[in-house]
UniProtKB/TrEMBL annotation:
Molecular function GO labels: GTP binding; GTPase activity
Cellular-component GO terms for this entry: membrane
GO biological process terms, semicolon-separated: signal transduction
Listed name of the protein: Ras di-ras and rheb family members of small gtpase superfamily
Superkingdom: Eukaryota
InterPro entries: P-loop_NTPase, Small_GTP-bd, Small_GTPase, Small_GTPase_Ras-type
Keyword Electron transport belongs to the record: no
Length: 196
């Protein structure tokens, strides 16, 4: 695959989508940020193959202009679907996000990885690890619990998804270019505070 592999980071607000993205790209935990739509690229070597990954960090999926969301979904090669283990409601919404992906991709067999974030605050846990594993298993998806704050299982999540993407039989006419063409312009604002 010579073109960038487009991977949206999907989930409700405040589950750690932006911190997941910036930890993978920059190895930095962002304490404060202005929610926006952002995309980042990174080159990575997996199994002796150089791949270019483009992560789309969505603020809140149901907040976005649907036409833009649909176009990104259609051209995507895989998805990271994130919930927070300390927020039961974010876990309960996973099925709705999956249904939307399946509808737009016209397939219920597509590279998706389920991720439970914030396992560094075990005392606040509302969703058992076994629940996340069972949900992922029922939907045929790999599963990881991660901590974006501690940078735990971040790279492993993306590497696992990329291996799933490499196995998937993409139509040569689809997903040929990850450049998203749309008529809307978004002003990018990204105020960050790095924590060292």
């Amino acid at each position: 695959m010579n073109n960038p592999l487009l991977i949206p980071i999907i989930g409700p607000k405040e589950v750690g989508k932006s911190t997941f993205t910036t930890q993978f790209i920059f190895s930095q935990f962002i304490e404060e940020y202005d929610p926006t739509i952002e995309s980042y690229r990174k080159q990575i070597e997996i199994d002796n193959e150089i791949l270019i990954v483009e992560l789309y960090d969505f603020y809140q999926n149901d907040y976005l202009i649907y036409g833009f969301t649909k176009e990104v979904y259609k051209q995507s090669h895989g998805f990271v679907l994130i919930y927070s283990i300390i927020d039961r409601n974010s876990f309960n919404r996973l099925q709705d996000y999956l249904k939307e992906i399946y509808l737009i991709k016209n397939s219920d067999d597509f590279p998706i990885i389920i991720v439970g974030n914030k396992n560094d605050v075990e005392n606040l846990r509302q969703v058992k690890k076994e629940e996340g594993e069972e949900f992922a298993f029922k939907n045929g998806c790999p599963f990881f619990e991660i901590s974006t704050k501690a940078r735990y299982n971040i790279d492993e999540t993306i590497i696992t998804l990329l291996r799933e993407i490499r196995k998937y039989p993409f139509d040569s006419k689809s997903n040929s270019n990850s450049k998203i063409k749309f008529k809307f312009k978004f002003k990018i604002k990204f105020k960050i505070k790095f924590k060292f």
